[in-house]
């Protein structure tokens, strides 16, 4: 569901112009009621030459006398709205432009509007910055704040019409059921403290298994099946609950159970169903199945560190919609702060790398989880893990017969 965040401006538009266009990070521009120079005629999604829209907005305001203080307070010179689509929709720039301009035309038809598109957030999700000048070009009156709920309802309606996920408006006079959190991933204090001390957290364990299943699953049935293989049961919450959600529990410890939205919005029923219906799943491939099998094997042998590394690598690949090793390398180079680490995990874990190769059509590789030393992990811990892997590999070899060449597929 698209989120609309309003910000008021009380200065000239030069500052917001420089902020939105610096370092060449703008993906595209759209305009309403401004003389922007189009490079070529187009009924939809035109391309524009460089244009100083801040200068024209400031001139319009000055000519209308709308730069002067109002009732002793500084003039509100513009409104800046950030329209962010649901990350689960995997919306592309063209559809975001269609959604944004439909919303702009409905709500600000008589105002000068400049729209700048970015994808400079953590997940590289395209979003729109909508700058609305404070002067109505028809009657020269100042912009009065539209009803915030009306703006949000408008965005949800257009999202629904485009087949994107959206929020249903509550009946008049009733409040929408509250969400547990608005964060994509929500880590509670107890979980964070256990992680800081290097201790086991069953909540983090469930989240990691879900992270892998959600990236690989093609639909709800597939998601439930993959989680079952990894030892997690999925059930609907109580019919009396305010919000419909799923409850996850460990199969071998059913009292350890938690609802999806308590883990973060990305793990809740509504967000997951929207994700599956979008069809844009980077890891829903044969390679992804091999990765899920590796995670299931890690669960069976108690390899919580293996599971953690796989989940983090999957999150890196999935959030950037990476579909090949070449795309993975480019993403790592473009985002060295977190990309390098994610890239290292994918390279270190043969299954994570093979998931990306499989997405490009290569056959799924061996299902064995490979241990490497990552970051500052203590050497003693690595030696113990390597010994455990060698024992597991030997047992697997005795059961299945000799494996293929090193790094090659099992025959």
From TrEMBL:
Record field: compositional bias (Pro residues): 402-411
Segments for region (Disordered): 331-411
Source superkingdom: Bacteria
All copies of domain MobA/VirD2-like nuclease, residue ranges: 49-164
Listed Low complexity bias regions: 349-362
Protein name from the UniProt record: Relaxase/mobilization nuclease
InterPro entries: Endonuclease_MobA/VirD2 (IPR005094)
Biased composition (Basic and acidic residues): 383-399
UniProt xrefs under Pfam families: Relaxase
